[in-house]
Fold this sequence. Notes:
Strand order of the largest sheet of chain A: 7-6-5-8-9-10-11
Pathway (chains A, B, C, D): Purine metabolism; IMP biosynthesis via de novo pathway; formate from 10-formyl-5,6,7,8-tetrahydrofolate: step 1/1
Mean pLDDT of chain A: 91
Family (chains A, B, C, D): Belongs to the PurU family.
CATH topology of the largest domain in chain A: Rossmann fold
Number of strands of chain A: 13
Order of helices and strands of chain A: EHEEHEEHEHEHEHEHEEHEE
Largest interface: A-B, 35 and 35 residues
CATH architecture of the largest domain in chain A: 3-Layer(aba) Sandwich
Number of helices of chain A: 8
Helix content of chain A: 25-40%
EC number (chains A, B, C, D): 3.5.1.10
Keywords (chains A, B, C, D): Hydrolase, One-carbon metabolism, Purine biosynthesis
Number of domains of chain A: 2
GO biological process, one term (chains A, B, C, D): one-carbon metabolic process
Oligomer: homotetramer
Amino acid sequence: MSRMTDTWILAAQCPSILGTVDVVTRFLKEQHCYITELSSFDDRLGERFFIRAEFRPERETFDEQAFQENFLPRAADFDMTFELTAPAKRTGAVILVSKADHCLNDLLYRYRTGQLALDIKAIISNHPDLESLASWHDLPYHHLPITPDTKADQEAQVLDIIEQTGAELVILARYMQVLSPRMCELLDGRAINIHHSLLPGFKGAKPYHQAYDKGVKLVGATAHYINNDLDEGPIIAQGVEPVDHTHYPEDLVAKGRDIECLTLARAIGYHLERRVFLHNGRTVVFGN
Amino acid sequence: MSRMTDTWILAAQCPSILGTVDVVTRFLKEQHCYITELSSFDDRLGERFFIRAEFRPERETFDEQAFQENFLPRAADFDMTFELTAPAKRTGAVILVSKADHCLNDLLYRYRTGQLALDIKAIISNHPDLESLASWHDLPYHHLPITPDTKADQEAQVLDIIEQTGAELVILARYMQVLSPRMCELLDGRAINIHHSLLPGFKGAKPYHQAYDKGVKLVGATAHYINNDLDEGPIIAQGVEPVDHTHYPEDLVAKGRDIECLTLARAIGYHLERRVFLHNGRTVVFGN
Amino acid sequence: MSRMTDTWILAAQCPSILGTVDVVTRFLKEQHCYITELSSFDDRLGERFFIRAEFRPERETFDEQAFQENFLPRAADFDMTFELTAPAKRTGAVILVSKADHCLNDLLYRYRTGQLALDIKAIISNHPDLESLASWHDLPYHHLPITPDTKADQEAQVLDIIEQTGAELVILARYMQVLSPRMCELLDGRAINIHHSLLPGFKGAKPYHQAYDKGVKLVGATAHYINNDLDEGPIIAQGVEPVDHTHYPEDLVAKGRDIECLTLARAIGYHLERRVFLHNGRTVVFGN
Amino acid sequence: MSRMTDTWILAAQCPSILGTVDVVTRFLKEQHCYITELSSFDDRLGERFFIRAEFRPERETFDEQAFQENFLPRAADFDMTFELTAPAKRTGAVILVSKADHCLNDLLYRYRTGQLALDIKAIISNHPDLESLASWHDLPYHHLPITPDTKADQEAQVLDIIEQTGAELVILARYMQVLSPRMCELLDGRAINIHHSLLPGFKGAKPYHQAYDKGVKLVGATAHYINNDLDEGPIIAQGVEPVDHTHYPEDLVAKGRDIECLTLARAIGYHLERRVFLHNGRTVVFGN
């Protein structure tokens, strides 16, 4: 993103208390940081405060560690969690795929052209099919087959790779496997899935056949954080495309692909730019 | 509709057999009718054929009754049902409402300005609130209250009005009442409902609260024929609007209103122009 | 708007200087005001800062005048202009129309149901056609015909009504008249027009015929502040609808009506909620 | 397209005369061809008739040449031009690019996965940058640099490749070069361009800067056949994406890329499925 080449991001959340905005903005001013974009929202029902600031240090040098250390006690007064993100930050990520390549192809294109500030550590698949796509992009590809018997082992291997590579983000780009509850827990808030339908409609098997039988006029996709409630995690982004009676189930699938790619890419972009906040199973997304 | 002032519509459906298109188009040519717009579709899975032709008689006089009588035996050969609609046709309709007036206001505006070729016979409500709106448009308003005890009686009264006025179409413009199975059956294929959400998601009570809890980024509306499967009838039209975290449930409701109005009006327009075909619980809509 | 029943709005803009956010947020905290929603943006190219805060006073009493007087010197330090808007504020408005009633009907519906916090002072038209619509809503209607000879006089009468009623906002709801440069200047930043096309395409006469000749697949509408550059004022909101070859120019006009209504209503809502900032011919819109 | 694996397409156009539909549908029946999808439209203003039929031969064998020869005299009676397209038909195409790779990457993905029934003969560019992308897909890449002095020669080389490969379609996937009038004429009706804006707005240089200066809230893309009127050819497909004030010109460019890819791919799909008809500078598109 062009506008992020010289701007840092401070993202924070805490309970709703008088002074939440001021504690952030006053500190930024004291640190001689110029705020270029600011969004805050107080969730009246959840009694939770969210803030995101893009800022540009006005002085030649900016000491990231000092900034964090100085802000820590102030944030503590508000029981505030925060994250500081550098302009050049590229978030380490592992991508899980199966056989379908449309989302992976789209992500790798955006990665290669710098549209998504990702540092892709590995691509993992339970099938060998997408290895050549990965290798064209010079990315390591791990073929980790999965059977009912080996599922626990395979997940352990996946977690190993995530841990060893230090990946902060896990992207399920049409992975087609249900993650175990333990894995969901370990990846809470940092694994993004794309679901091939508008949630919560048409869950379960053959969603596009269900949609066809209802004669739907719109197909959609939902990008969400995974959680234990299968296909029901907190929503980050959604998209739709019009369809009509000439679309048989296989055509709905094809129509769905474009909107899946776009919706997943948008959700990842929001995550990387620290526009997404998660609290109690709901998201706040300062989109644009 | 400007383009319909001199064009008739022939709409038909039948099982998939060789010659289905030809039996219609050959007859129209013999009758010296010029086809201005034609759409046909053969549903491979349902093995059902649908056709809609707009045509302009080339001769000074056009004998509607003779046309129908002459076409009847040919249609019979294909087990084809058909409907001929005159250019000036205004479809008789009864509108059912409750207290919410946004859809009614929108429909009456389109009725008054000739955008919808309706002949509104009556407006029926279980509440008195919308009487003045009806009377400003010089339309009869029937206040028929409903309680669990009087539901059967009230439905009988509603059916009486539909029958006595000869209404062909029943519009449920946010009626908020569940129709009895018998009523659904009697109105099969000629009662259009607008559902305040994207089906099949968020059924039941407080759909917008459910949507809020999931953090949805899109709200929608679905216009469909009613059937015994509550809120699950064949879909005619759907629409969506983007929302974000700043939309509390009551804001989602407000956002939903615009898309409900537009989606219901579009569905009614398609029905009036005989663009909608119903077969085995699915619709074919030759939209534009 | 549900969320505004207890929240005030402070909207401000000034040149880009370090501390712009802090001067606002610190003051709000000192005044014991809890910020429920905050957006700020610094236009890098225009070197201009914009901020909008929704806040809720935490103390029983809130002295509007004292708030303004106390903030004035601080704002002055930043050459900042600001506006404070009370929760119950309904903005006085005059609506200009011609013969087409779709936008007026839509606005009056939203006005009557409280969706738009307007205090409609008068409806002015160069034609008598829409008087009954106004009178059903108990609103004064001024029929001020216009001819080339009387244009100056008529505009003077319009300005008189605006002045005498104290209207802060002027809405051109398909007024179809070109305002004189002087009138544009007097209404700078407070007159919203709806243009029957996506600007800057298809300006001038018969835009829908031009669109038809190009075979466009989308029609749109643009709501903008008027200025001397006819139909080229700063854009507040835009919308589109898909069309196809079956839409003759008169059908494009009909399709355009819905999107004109929605786009104008959205722009007015943004204006009333002080989400729109104007500077050097560009808008910043903190939409939702 | 799944639904095309066993269906042929007959597309035709002629002046508006009684019997235009019948001459097509009667012939198809005589040839024992079952029509699965039919669309016809009569342009009242242009007095021109367009028809597209998808059909499935009912007999084991289907003699393409005999079909054409038999239909020819009947079509001649109506001054009708027509084209018969086989189910397995893959249209030979040459793709012209410059340095930007987003549209090419998208097209090659769809080509490789069979979403677009293309037979890509060559990729031609005035720059060497995209050679590796072409070679990964095993496609010939011709680097033909262009300068004001060599433009005529370069175009001759491009035309040579088109001719020698027998390419029927030329795709300008962000080629960034103005074709000479002669080249436009030679490629009339078979060269598709993607324009980085909604036409006719923001023509000429730096369209996204123009859009930024107007404060647009939507960016779009237009796919059209090229003609001598630069960037003003007959429109095949258009798309839009919402933007706001945080989008600087370079962000508008980035936002535009996605919609350019999708719009170009949709237009090519329509062209390949013979859904697009061209007459007197206007298109009729039987989309879905």
